[in-house]
Amino acid sequence: MNEKLLRPISGFWVVLAIALCAGGAIYGLAEDYNTVPALLIVVAALLTTCITVVQPNKAVVVMFFGRYVGTINKSGLWAVVPFSIRKAVSLRVRNFNSVKLKVNDVEGNPIEIAAVVVFKVVDSAKAMFDVDNYMKFVEIQSETALRHVASKYPYDSLTGTGLSLRANAEEIASELAEELQGRLSIAGVGVLEARLTHLAYSTEIASTMLQRQQAAAVLSARQIIVEGAVGMVDMAIKQLKESGVVELDEERKAAMINNLMVAIVSERGANPIINAGSLY
Question: At the fourth CATH level, which superfamily is domain 94-203?
């Protein structure tokens, strides 16, 4: 069912007609008329059932004997079909904060995740008639979409390739919003934004995963240090050879490389030893 907009007449004209009927009825009673006052009172009561008030940023869905007539989405005082049923639907922007969900990521690690969804009703007819309670529908579908997206990616990518929940928050949020829009369109709800508000390893594996992250960081730092040390040793040997300060045979080169690598890679400062004699 799609939304159909109504073009109602202004309610002020109906209020004026009610006032005229009421005045005519009072005048008829004063002049001792019998039929006219009763007729005017019936007309005034009938017109009273036509009046409806629409608040700003709200829509009123009009139903007449079980049939959807249309929607009024302009604020003000309006007149609709007599004896019709009117239900208000809020068009304001709303937030839904999910609870912390425990989900397994793509690697099977249990994580805790939560998100906030910013949404609004864009089709009052679908929100009213296609689902029982569109607010409850938003809550359930939001948590379902969050679980599905979280299970497709790892918490963190140790290799640096591919998307991860921690390192690619913008991409994950965009995919979550897209999936939510597909799920909530049936209820006439438009998703404006979806963001992760909480992301952490579950408590039972948090300490273990922290140790793994620390080990990965140490390994990465060691790789950078070794690459830099090799470059420095190569540069030192080339400069000594080009300057002709000293001629190094293979054994002396090996000893020099060993000393430089130990001095550069070592975590502690090197203690120099002055050799006053021959290298042999």
Answer: Band 7 domain (3.30.479.30)
